[in-house]
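In response to reviewer comment 3 from the previous cycle, which asked for concrete evidence that the modeling workflow produces usable outputs, we include below a single protein chain processed end to end. The sequence was submitted unchanged, and the resulting structure tokens are shown without manual editing.
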Amino acid sequence: MPGSILFTAVAAVSYFVVGIRYEADIMPGTLTTIGQFAVLIIIWLNVVGMCVIYLKRNNSWFWFLSIGLLIQLIAYLVSSLHQAVRRGVGANRWYHSHGWLSHLAKA
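The workflow returned the following structure tokens.
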């Protein structure tokens, strides 16, 4: 039990330090800060590591790993799409790709 308490204390301090250090830097193409993303990834990898260590016969660590990767990928894609729409990239591409609408704007 003392090992897990020590690990929890070290993890809490590292989450705090990483989160505060990179809170002002924003990931390119998204609205997420690097500090938030890094802390969530560290927590997720710690959960996967604990599942590997404590649940040796169970393959739940594989599900935590794959579902976490899927969630991160979906979140990144949604955030990138949101930024593209805010900049108007999606609307401009759609408008210019449909040539039959462009004659309406000229009229």
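Residues 60-87 form the longest helix (28 residues). We consider this sufficient to address the reviewer's concern, and the full set will be provided in the supplementary archive.
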